[in-house]
Structures are given as structure tokens and as C-alpha cells.
Design goal:
Keywords: Membrane, Transmembrane, Transmembrane helix. With 361 residues, the protein is mainly beta. 8% of the residues lie in helices and 47% in strands.
């Protein structure tokens, strides 16, 4: 029997075919042979263009997701009015897990129509994964306490928005409940999220009237004067950015009347001299001999503090105009007959704006 070995008859010059995923879509001839056709150039540019437009599309998709569902579902479960306080119970369904709401009385801002409000307390509890219940207790200026309240109840709560393609946004949820009725249940309130930013390096900063005290009140010629101490606090509850303040000038008003002011210190060349070296987020202002009228147990609602302060952050610094309006001060008398005034409720948030210079100080 003849035997023949099974030798490979493939020519030596033959190369095994490449896998399909590593084969080029088109091989462009060298320039020395001929110019590439428009179809060949389009095929070469297609992967780059496809990748670029894919990145843009993904970015737009994430942007649309970030901007969607910014309205929380908020209902007023009950609303009660007593001779001293107002209380509302709310149920909140957050729009997405990327939103976080901070239920802190010191960071909240509340108004009832045109009346000033002092927040006494805010408590919250988690009902389910998406639902949170919170109670708001506050004191408002004297006015209509009938069954129907004509003014709107506006609440601002500090919040954070976690974003996909950008850094987290600090802001606040704006809640508005209209035509409150005593004893009525489940009033649907409007809500929206607003970004808070002064400039790009600081996403959230709050200035609040931390404390107002009137330790010494004298009565001479039927005119009461007092020494006031007011504190401003810079806060960044979301970003935890380290801030520091110092006061340049400040004045204390009741209504539109200036009752005391602190002027800036200038050197011989008219330049600002900062005597307060402060690396803390609190700056204290002492007003001396301010004209003060207050009766034991009464609350005065129309005090206002206007200040120019220097702000220093981790990567920026500048000057701010700060206005703290509607500061409620409650006056009490101790056993010795001395009259004291203190801030009613929690901290009060103030309005602020960035200043270009100090020429108008």
C-alpha cells in the first residue's frame, strides 16, 4: 500500500486573512498613484465625525436629563393658626434622587404676602424613599387671621442638584401656596428650583442676621437709646466653601430712618483701612446710641441693616452690598427693669450683590 503524507499545499507567500474587525473599511491609494475620490475621503472622515457627533449627542442627552424634572410635588396637608403662631404641615415628593433639600430653619426664608415672618422651627421626617414630611412653625405680623388668608405663603429651602456633566449646583426650592384656608387639607403648592451663584467660584453663599441684641437702653428726655450688636454670617451649606468676612461700613435703620451707622476707616490718602482681621465667616457690627423704642413683650418688625462687607473665599475675594430687611426684634424686661431686645426666630437671610469698587462708600 502506498502512503502519502498530507502536506500543506498553501503557497508560502500566502498570508492568513485578517479578522473582519481589524480590516480597514477602505484602503486609500498612495498620493503618488492617484488622488482620493470624494467618496473615499468621506469614508475616511466618517469615524471621526461619527465619534464627535456621538459625544455631542451624549452631552445633550445628559443636559436635558439635568434640566428635566426640577419641580417637586408639594402639598400642604394641614394649616393651623393660633393666637401666637402659624403652623403648616407639608408632604414633599422630590423630583429625582439627584435633588437634595435641606430642612433647616436657619437657612429657610418664609414670607406671607406683604407681612414679615419669623421662622421658629422646621422639623422633617422621611416617609418613604421619595417622600418627606416637614412642619413649619412661624410668627407673622399682626393682620387678618380669618379663615381665608388672602396672601400667598412663599418658602425658600436650600437645595442641591447633582449633575452628570458638570459640578453640583447649589440652589433653593421655591414653594408657593396660594389662598390658604384654615383647616383645609391637601392644597397643592407650586415649586421650582433656582440656581444660586454670585460668581463661578462660589455656588452658594448666604448672609444672615445672626443676632441682634440691645443690652443697654436708657431713657433721657423721653428718648430711648441703645447699644446694638448685629452679626452677619457667610454660609455655604452645600459646597462647604470656606468664607471669611469683614465689615467696611454699616448702618441701622427703622423703616426709612437711619438710627445709627458705622463709617469706614480711611488713611491719609483716602484708602480703606481694614482694622478687623477676621478669618471666620462671622463679622460683628456694634451700633452705639441708636434711638430705640420698644415695649416689654412687643415685637418690632421693620428694622433693617445695610452693610458693605469684604468677602474672601478660597480662590476669590471682593466686596458685597448686603441688605437685611424686616428684622423682627422682640423686647423683654429683666427683674431689674432693664430692657433687652433679641432677634425673634432663627437666622434671617439677607440680599446681596457684588460691588465693582468702593467709590460710593
Amino acid at each position: 500500500m502506498a502512503y502519502q503524507a498530507n502536506f500543506d499545499t498553501t503557497p508560502a507567500s500566502s498570508v492568513a486573512p485578517r479578522p473582519w474587525w481589524s480590516r480597514p473599511m477602505m484602503t486609500v491609494p498612495p498620493i503618488s498613484e492617484r488622488k482620493s475620490t470624494s467618496k473615499e475621503m468621506a469614508v475616511m472622515c466618517a469615524p471621526c465625525c461619527g465619534g464627535f457627533f456621538t459625544i455631542v449627542l451624549v452631552f445633550l442627552i445628559f443636559s436635558s436629563i439635568n434640566d428635566a424634572h426640577s419641580h417637586a410635588k408639594i402639598s400642604l396637608q394641614s394649616f393651623a393658626v393660633s393666637s401666637a403662631t402659624w403652623q403648616g404641615d407639608f408632604l414633599v415628593k422630590i423630583p429625582s434622587s439627584r435633588y437634595s433639600i435641606y430642612y433647616d430653619g436657619d437657612d429657610a426664608s418664609v414670607s406671607l404676602g406683604s407681612r414679615n415672618v419669623a421662622v421658629l422651627n422646621i422639623t422633617s421626617r422621611r416617609v418613604s424613599r421619595d417622600h418627606t414630611a416637614f412642619s413649619l412653625t412661624f410668627v407673622a405680623e399682626e393682620g387678618n387671621r380669618s379663615d381665608v388668608v388672602s396672601e400667598d405663603l412663599d418658602i425658600k429651602l436650600v437645595a442641591k442638584h447633582k449633575r452628570y456633566e458638570d459640578y453640583d449646583k447649589a440652589g433653593e426650592f421655591n414653594i408657593r401656596c396660594q389662598n390658604l384656608t384654615r383647616g383645609r387639607e391637601k392644597i397643592i403648592c407650586d415649586s421650582s428650583f433656582t440656581d444660586l451663584k454670585l460668581f463661578s467660584l462660589i455656588t452658594l453663599r448666604e448672609l444672615v442676621a445672626h443676632s441682634v441684641s440691645v443690652p443697654n437702653v436708657t431713657n433721657a428726655a423721653n428718648v430711648s437709646t441703645a447699644d446694638w450688636r448685629t452679626g452677619l454670617v457667610a454660609k455655604s451649606p452645600v459646597t462647604r466653601c470656606k468664607l471669611s468676612l469683614h465689615t467696611v461700613t454699616s448702618r441701622l435703620l427703622r423703616g426709612d430712618e437711619v438710627i445709627s451707622q458705622v463709617s469706614p476707616s480711611l488713611d491719609d490718602f483716602g484708602r480703606l483701612v481694614t482694622t478687623e482681621k477676621n478669618d471666620e465667616p462671622v463679622t460683628i457690627v456694634d451700633f452705639k446710641h441708636a434711638v430705640t423704642s420698644g415695649v416689654n413683650g412687643s415685637v418690632v418688625w421693620d428694622y433693617r441693616v445695610e452693610s458693605v462687607v469684604g468677602l474672601k473665599a478660597e480662590f476669590a475675594h471682593g466686596f458685597l452690598s448686603v441688605i437685611c430687611s424686616g428684622i423682627p426684634v422682640k423686647f423683654t424686661t429683666d427683674a431689674a427693669g432693664n430692657v433687652f431686645g433679641s432677634l425673634l426666630g432663627g437666622m434671617r437671610r439677607c440680599g446681596y450683590s457684588l460691588r465693582d469698587n468702593l467709590n460710593s462708600v
